[in-house]
Write a structure and sequence with these properties.
Length: about 190
Amino acid sequence: MKKKLKITFNAPVVLTFALVCLVALILSFITFGASNKLLFMTYRSSLLSPLTYLRLFTHVLGHSSWAHFIGNMSYILLLGPMLEEKYGSSEITWIIVVTALVTGIVNCLFFPLTALCGASGVVFAFILLTSFTGFKQGELPVSVILVALIYIGQQVYDGLFVQDNISNLSHIIGGLVGAVIGYRLNKKR
């Protein structure tokens, strides 16, 4: 007897996050970027505006182009379901929220003239978190060290020597958030 193939919503947080990012990108195209500036970018603005605080979280949903979106979602959809299966939906939600908040605050404090938009910090949090999946108490896997050196090292190099519109600091901060949370989550287990 043949089993029927069924499609499952296997990683609800990651899939919903990707879908909301897609909706935000479409809104940005429809509004010629106005929705990104209003809701999906963080930058220094009046502390009296409630949107300033909202954007500290929602900037990870916006993307500046299809290429930017596809680059981030490729990693998020590759790594996220595995992480959500291992750690659970609530932990993945927490990681996304903490990464958004920390990268948003750091950007506003240290780069007041620069708007931050996109899920790259979340991508780097997931990359470093993934390297902790085989972590055991009292051990530091070589894979964690190599991933940190390669990904964080590349961002430091790019931040110092490459002039582009990429926020290397948000990548580094996201990676550090993923590493700290990955260490703590796996230490508990």
